[in-house]
Amino acid sequence: MKRLAIFISGRGSNLEAILDQVAGGVLAGRCVVTLVFTDNPAAPGLAIARRRQVTTVAIDARSMRRFDFDAVLAELLERVRPDLIALAGYMRIVPPELVRRYRIVNIHPADTARHRGLHGYRWAFEQRLPTTTITVHWVDEGLDTGPVIARRVVNLAGADSEAEVERRGLAVEHHLYPIILAQLLTDADSVDARGADARAHDRRGGN
Ligand code: GAR
User: Fold this and answer.
1) Which residue, among 117, 158, 153, has the nearest Cα to 135 in the 3D structure?
2) Does 108 participate in catalysis according to the annotation?
3) Mean per-residue pLDDT of the chain
4) Is the minimum distance from the CB of 120 to ligand 1 under 6 angstroms?
């Protein structure tokens, strides 16, 4: 059984979707969630994990220097030894040592070639985009810059509020992310697959 760690900073709706699929869906029998980690002890998503009896660790990023935070996190992961780390609304740059050491994926509520960082749905709404694109990508040392694993287009026709854009986007996120995680946890050669992704990314010149 593969070991999955999930990192969150806030609401945790993707976390919940993943845990649902571990309990009885595409992720059942493929992995155990060995850790839910957060940099924000007030993250509402923590309660979701606790209700499901998943181990949670919260380290308040504001309470310590970056160097110390990164060291504590590295030590924690040495103990947990995840096969895969899924960022699910984790709003902090992952330190380069961890990016090199672990397989880490992220879900982003926009096309990462067009919008990175926060407020992807607000951006789509303010631009009045007819569609937006949910992206699952490998985490590299940048902000939402790693090689793309999967993309799904969300139809925004008639979406007349940011909340509606977000509602449609999250429905796609919640469906897509567990499926992609299941694939990544299943591929025996997924490390090679990552290499291939990264090489393709390099050939494109990165971003
Ligand atoms: C999700 O929309 C996720 O794609 C986004 O944060 C939200 C977290 O919601 N992530 C990013 O913007 C990463 N750059 P959740 O806590 O309910 O899963």
Assistant:
1) 153
2) yes
3) 92
4) yes
pLDDT, tens digit (0-9, with 9 covering 90-100), for 149-207: 999 999 999 999 999 999 999 999 999 999 999 999 997 544 444 444 444 444 343 33
Residue 5 DSSP code:
E
Percentage helix, strand, coil for the chain under 3-state DSSP, each rounded to 5: 45, 20, 35
Chosen CATH of 2-204 out of 3.20.140.10, 3.40.190.10, 3.40.50.170, 1.10.150.240: 3.40.50.170
Which of 7, 8, 11 to mutate for ligand 1's pocket (most ligand atoms within 8 Å of CB)? 11
Domain ranges across the chain: 2-204
pTM here? 0.91
